[in-house]
């Protein structure tokens, strides 16, 4: 075979498929941006749309923090991409995020990815708004399994309430939802109860478990911070074994200022939920760019914390940055571990109390060592260590 034939063969085998692939990417990009609002003279944000159909979802899932940091360095605080099957604009920075969070129901509305909506259901609390969603098959099996177990508990709860069995002085969220329907004279909507219960399990368990895991990690990596936590506990009489008055109450918890700062710093570096999902209700302007109607908008909590100018030495774990007289969380939208606006986390005060109690009990009863050193963190759906954070715990003797 002569040289011309070899070159032609190589062209057909390698170069032509590459050219076709690049052409497909370009056509995909043109197709995605064709959904822009042509009546608006503003440009779309910079960015790329990735591979045909897949967009940039695979890169984000596989590379996660590195992918997001690369995008931020290249395109800045607002850029377009294609994630979870939809053209998307990612937004970060206090001023930009403020516009999104305060524009709820006016500019944007909550819009979780299809897989999340399928499991939680369209009737869950965070999805209640005027728009409707198509039912998706993906995740139905998992949802049905979860809902079947939840329905058993709901029916048992209803039977106890109808029998007027005493349940103590406290009411749980499920009981409040049931009694709300009864008080209004409405029939119980079992499907809505199951969906709301699923959401409460996720919001009330997964996120606090993520934050508690991060607390164990940081306190294990920074023993001088753990020492200061114990010094604060000792000053409040919470370390002495012989003191019978060292039980926790709300008044004592409010006085544990340094522990509160440790929790804040943990949530700054490892916010349990990395961001929030919205959909544009109409085309609007954001920092000189158009956000087209129907496009998804993701506001990034972790990136907003990373770029906030109010934080000095951002990579350092330093709880003292939140101590008076000049706490570094003074800017409202630079520190948003619980989101903000109309859809800020309804359980944030409960979460803060729970994490304070967890930190107190951990510090006064345990010493521990992380077996694998600083963990690599995954950030979807909540932040968690890749290695599940193996650690060796021993009993703390209560002396510092």
TrEMBL record:
PANTHER family: CYTOCHROME P450 26, CYTOCHROME P450 26A1. It is a peripheral membrane protein. One of its GO terms (cellular component) is endoplasmic reticulum membrane. Keywords: Endoplasmic reticulum, Heme, Iron, Lipid metabolism, Membrane, Metal-binding, Microsome, Monooxygenase, Oxidoreductase. It is found in: Endoplasmic reticulum membrane; Microsome membrane. Pfam families: p450. Belongs to the cytochrome P450 family. This is Cytochrome P450 26A1. Heme binds at residue 345. One of its GO terms (molecular function) is heme binding. Its cofactor is heme. SUPFAM superfamilies: Cytochrome P450. Transmembrane segments: none annotated. It catalyses: all-trans-retinoate + reduced [NADPH--hemoprotein reductase] + O2 = all-trans-(4S)-hydroxyretinoate + oxidized [NADPH--hemoprotein reductase] + H2O + H(+). One of its GO terms (biological process) is sterol metabolic process.
């Amino acid at each position: 075979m002569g040289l011309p034939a070899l070159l032609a063969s190589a062209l057909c085998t390698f170069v032509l498929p590459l050219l076709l692939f690049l052409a497909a990417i370009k056509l995909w990009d043109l197709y995605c941006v064709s959904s822009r609002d042509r009546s608006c003279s503003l440009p779309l944000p910079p960015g790329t749309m990735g591979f045909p159909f897949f967009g940039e979802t695979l890169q984000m899932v596989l590379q996660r923090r590195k992918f997001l940091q690369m995008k931020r360095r290249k395109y800045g605080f607002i850029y377009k991409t294609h994630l979870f099957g939809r053209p998307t604009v990612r937004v970060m920075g206090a001023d930009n995020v403020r516009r999104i969070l305060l524009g709820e129901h006016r500019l944007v509305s909550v819009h979780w990815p299809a897989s999340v909506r399928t499991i939680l259901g369209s009737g869950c609390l965070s999805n209640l708004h005027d728009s409707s969603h198509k039912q998706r098959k993906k995740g139905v099996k998992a949802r049905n399994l979860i809902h079947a177990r939840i329905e058993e508990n709901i029916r048992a709860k209803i039977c106890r309430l109808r029998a007027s069995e005493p349940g103590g002085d406290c009411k749980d969220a499920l009981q409040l939802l049931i009694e709300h329907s009864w008080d209004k004279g409405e029939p119980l909507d079992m499907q809505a109860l199951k969906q709301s219960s699923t959401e409460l399990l996720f919001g009330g368990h997964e996120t606090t478990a993520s934050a508690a895991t991060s607390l164990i990690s940081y306190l294990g990596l920074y023993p001088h911070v753990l020492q200061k936590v114990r010094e604060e506990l000792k000053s409040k009489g919470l370390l002495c074994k012989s003191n019978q008055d060292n039980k926790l109450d709300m008044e004592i918890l409010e006085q544990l200022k340094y522990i509160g700062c440790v929790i804040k710093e943990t949530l700054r570096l490892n916010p349990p939920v990395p961001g929030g999902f919205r959909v544009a209700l109409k085309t609007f302007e954001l920092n000189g760019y158009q956000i087209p109607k129907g496009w998804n908008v993701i506001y990034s909590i972790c990136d907003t914390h990373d770029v906030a100018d109010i934080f000095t030495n951002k990579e350092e774990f330093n709880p003292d940055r939140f101590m008076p007289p000049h706490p570094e969380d003074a800017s409202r939208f630079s520190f948003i571990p619980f989101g903000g606006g109309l859809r800020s986390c309804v359980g944030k005060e409960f979460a803060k109390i729970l994490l304070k109690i967890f930190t107190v009990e951990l510090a006064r009863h345990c010493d521990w060592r992380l077996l694998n050193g600083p963990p690599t963190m995954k950030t979807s759906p909540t932040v968690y260590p890749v290695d599940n954070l193996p650690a060796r715990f021993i009993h703390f003797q209560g002396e510092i």
